[in-house]
Design brief:
The protein has 26 helices and 32 strands. It has about 900 residues and is an alpha+beta fold. The protein has an eight-stranded mixed beta sheet with strand order 6-5-9-3-2-12-15-14, with no helix packed on it. The longest helix is centred in the last third of the chain and has 30 residues. Bound molecules: zinc ion (ZN). Zinc ion (ZN) binds next to helix 3.
Length: about 900
């Protein structure tokens, strides 16, 4: 399908469904290639719809069997059916039942949308519009129904049969080979939250009693033999359930809660009511096969999907334009949970890194869109960092602006008022306007306007008047479809740092909201603080209080003082990042600035030396973040035009080497101090020690390759956990030579039976910043560990390569050609994974002219390929526009 032929769906065209489906009774007889689906729909006209309208049900690659209205076969003249649509021309204007028979082939479903069978497990993925691949339906989130589901399958092939809600019956089918279960979900839900699972699975189980006294049977299902790796996910589930009771007053509302891990899954996980389905990468964990990063991701994603039970399921979205209503809010909730469970500053730093790398780059390129898009051709392409991560930032700003009390009261009101409905952003914001007494009309612009705002700040001290005046101005660059931008509401958390620490903030400015927050809601403003006896250093955007770029011309010396003395840990970290980033941007633009880089390395090493010796051992997780330079993609985005990836890489490597050389002894001492012999534990404190130790290893490997290679090889051999082994491999990939190839081979042997670990092995190699990497990646595609049909493998090897700044952006264009060819090949089987991969081209316009032409040519080649999916055609078209 060519994208031009695809209709554009617009928010302003929304109107309610003409028909409603109150009840859905599904009877599904699972079979690998011939699954029979009978759907009995309890229907009625929607009072809010158009009377007398035909009934048009969505389908996708379906073929209709029998069709009955109130139990009677319908005459063929009364309806028409295509694979995409079932239309009843004149349905009765009353309640009636519609019984629809379809037959589907789960084994042939390589798109992994709807019902599919892979690795011998039947499972479903229905968000956003996969249910229409199972049965004809009003497949839109504002049609909410009560489901009863009977599943039947061969006992041997699928001893476990799960669906949403509570189990109400189970038994054998006469004949003895097949069995069935019946599930009832009393909570009305949209079709995208329907799920089923069938297969031979092991599980762990635990009872849980909610704060309001409901006994819940929790279970985590995994592939046979892997139950020993499900304990962490269960532990996370119990902790996040308690947290949601305590922090948001939300209790779970069914008698069972099931989590199932499957190995072939397009997304991270899916919040189906009472039956969350996960990519196994986000469930399975033990010290030998999961890193500290995996443990933290599992904790965050288990929580995220669980939290959707209220923010997404009990209250769902009216239409897909409101996706951020559930996603941005739920990301905010899972970020808060992780912050409470771990270190709040470290979590914030990690989240801001992700935001800048993924969302700021999206906002700066052709795929920029508002948190609530106004139009789409393919909704699957809008599960983006903007909707998720920026959407979460908007909630965080709202909380800061109205205060904790009004925020919690607003959430309570939202849960009370919108429970059981399909809501909008307006419904949501109205609750907070009510509890805070604020007009949130301008704040709502965050949902409408794309692009990353820039705050330009400057300050001046008047010694005689003992005042300090801060000038703030905001701008947002044009983005596709939005040439003119309006000022948004920006909460700027700040402090004025004097020689003895934070100075008291005294001002009569109406822009000062108290508690160290200025609200910048105009193009520019000035705030004057009184009783400022000494020239302070402004510490702006504490805790990263708004998702913006900040331009503030502080001398390196002032930034180093903030690093040493700021009471806000985020800005301590930010201060050194800014020093490094400025030098990297300068050297990335102009290689003759290398001398400045050496000077900067001296400053950074000077600040880091004391810090690593005195403070780092007490808070290693924070110190690990401090030691890590800004990413190369972030430097490229800051440069913004005529980007030469090789120059950025050279600058980045040069700065790292210099810092490593100057810190050499400190790094070795630090590694010794942190080298406890304690057995592995995934807790945040232990993970922090490993993180810092391994950051140090990376710097040593760059600055003293022989010593680094020796340490890495020794660490690989002595480690009792994957985190340290993988860090050894990553450090070794920086040092070309036989030792590296030996370690790569040893790693593959050690983990030959562990596909999820080999994913990391594939990615580590795909990220090597050397000219030979493309050939290496091509060779790895023939390795038994790789498969083009498994999304995790593709994301690791091909996605890893596309994230390799210098090699994806090879000057000869071969990197673009390779990825473009894979996108085209993959599109035939799995359009969603293909379109994600094509998103790697999103920053092509900022490249220097030579690479730009080559990238554009490959994008055009993809766009002109016949029979593209809607997913890929849409991304190609928008990226080129
Ligand atoms: Zn989500």
């Amino acid at each position: 399908m060519r994208s031009e032929d695809t209709p554009l769906i617009r928010l302003e065209d929304y109107r309610p469904s003409d028909w409603l489906i109150d009840t859905v009774d599904l009877d599904i007889a699972l079979h690998p290639t011939k699954t029979r689906v009978r759907a009995l729909l309890g229907m009625r006209p929607n009072p809010a719809g158009q009377p007398g309208a035909p009934l048009v049900l969505d389908g996708d690659e379906l073929s209709l069997g029998a069709l009955r209205l109130d139990g009677l076969l319908i005459d063929e003249s009364a309806y028409s059916a295509t694979p995409q649509k079932l239309t009843l021309h004149a349905p009765p204007a009353r309640r009636f039942t519609l019984m629809i028979d379809t037959e589907i082939d789960p084994s042939a479903n390589t798109k992994l949308m709807g019902l599919y069978r892979s690795s011998r497990v039947y499972c479903t993925q229905c968000e956003a519009d996969g249910f229409r691949r199972i049965s004809y339906f009003l497949d839109r989130p504002d049609v909410m129904s009560v489901y009863t589901v009977r599943l039947e399958a061969a006992k041997l092939a699928a001893p476990v049969l799960l669906s949403n809600g509570n189990l109400v019956a189970a038994g054998e089918v006469p004949g003895g080979e097949r069995h069935f279960t019946v599930w009832h979900d009393p909570h009305p839900k949209p079709a995208y939250l329907f799920a089923l699972v069938g297969g031979a699975l092991d599980h762990v189980r635990q009872n849980y009693v909610t704060a309001d006294g409901r006994s819940v049977e929790l279970a985590v299902y995994v592939e046979p033999g892997k139950a020993g790796r499900a304990g962490w996910a269960m532990d996370c589930l119990v902790r996040c359930m308690r947290w949601d009771e305590r922090v948001f007053g939300r209790n779970y509302d069914l008698d069972v809660f099931n989590v199932v891990a499957v190995s072939d899954f397009n997304m991270g996980a899916m919040e189906n009511k009472g039956l969350n389905i996960f990519n196994d990468k986000y469930v399975l964990a033990d010290p030998q096969t999961a890193t500290d990063g995996d443990y933290a991701s599992i904790e965050a994603i288990i929580a995220h999907e669980y939290f959707h039970n209220w923010t997404g399921n009990r209250i769902t979205c009216r239409d897909w334009f409101q996706l951020c209503l559930k996603e941005g809010l739920t990301v905010f909730r899972d970020q808060e949970f992780s912050a409470d469970e771990r270190s709040r500053p470290v979590k914030r730093i990690a989240d801001v890194r992700t935001l800048r790398t993924t969302q700021f780059s999206e906002d700066a390129g052709p795929l920029a869109h508002p948190v609530r898009p106004r139009a789409y051709k393919e909704i699957n392409n809008f599960y983006t960092p903007t909707v998720y991560e920026k959407g979460a930032e908007v909630i965080r700003m709202l909380k800061l602006l109205i205060g904790d009390g009004a925020f919690r009261a607003g959430m309570d009101l939202y849960f009370q008022r919108c429970d059981g409905t399909a809501a909008t952003i307006e419904d949501f914001l109205a609750c907070f306007a009510e509890t805070s007494g604020r007009d949130l009309a301008q704040f709502a612009l965050w949902y409408e306007q794309s692009g990353t705002p820039t705050i330009v700040a400057s300050g001046r001290h008047d010694a005689a008047a003992r005042t300090y005046t801060l000038d703030l101005a905001q701008t947002t660059a044009p983005t596709p479809g939005q040439p003119d931008k309006r000022p948004v509401v920006l909460p700027v958390a700040l402090g004025l740092v004097g020689t003895g620490g934070d100075l008291p903030l005294r001002t009569a400015s109406p822009a000062y909201a108290g508690d160290g927050v200025i609200v910048l809601d105009q193009p520019s403003l000035s705030v004057t603080f009184s009783d400022v006896a000494e020239p302070p250093i402004p510490s702006l955007l504490r805790g990263f209080s708004a998702p913006v770029r900040l331009e503030l011309d502080l001398a390196d010396g002032d930034l180093l003082r903030l690093f040493a003395a700021d009471s806000d840990p985020f800005n301590r970290w930010q201060a050194l990042q800014t020093v490094a980033s400025r030098a990297l941007v300068a050297a990335g633009r102009d290689a003759t600035k290398h001398n400045a880089l050496v000077a900067t390395a001296g400053e950074l090493a000077g600040a880091l030396g004391d810090f690593l010796r005195v403070q780092a051992p007490a808070d290693p997780a924070f110190a690990a973040q401090v030691l890590r330079l800004p990413g190369q993609a972030d430097i490229a985005r800051e440069i913004g035009a005529h980007v030469d990836p090789d120059a950025i890489h050279a600058a980045h490597r040069g700065l790292s080497v210099e810092i490593g050389l100057q810190l050499g002894a400190h790094l070795l001492v630090l590694r010794d101090i942190l080298n406890t012999q304690a057995r592995y534990s995934p807790d945040a404190a232990s993970a922090g020690r490993r993180a810092l130790r391994n950051e140090a290893l990376g710097l040593i490997a760059l600055s003293a390759p022989d010593a680094g290679a020796g340490l890495a090889a020794a660490q690989f051999s002595s480690a009792d956990n994957l985190t340290d082994r993988l860090a050894a491999l990553a450090a070794m990939t920086l040092v070309p030579g036989d030792a590296r190839e030996d370690l790569i081979a040893r790693f593959a042997q050690t983990y030959a039976a562990e596909p999820l670990v080999l994913d990391k092995w594939l990615m580590a190699q795909a990220l090597i910043p050397e000219a030979g990497t493309l050939d290496r990646v091509k060779a790895l595609m023939q390795h038994p560990a790789f498969s083009l049909t498994n999304p995790n493998r593709v994301r690791s090897l091909i996605g890893g390569f596309a994230a390799n700044l210098t090699q994806f952006n090879r000057a000869d264009g071969e990197g673009y050609a390779f990825v473009a060819d894979i996108v085209i090949a993959l599109d035939r089987t799995n359009p969603q994974v293909a379109s994600r991969l094509l998103g790697s081209f999103k920053s092509w316009r900022m490249l220097e002219p030579g690479r730009k032409v080559l990238a554009e040519a490959k994008l055009a080649m993809v766009a002109q390929t016949p029979n593209l999916s809607r997913d890929v055609a849409d991304i190609a078209e928008r990226t080129l526009a």
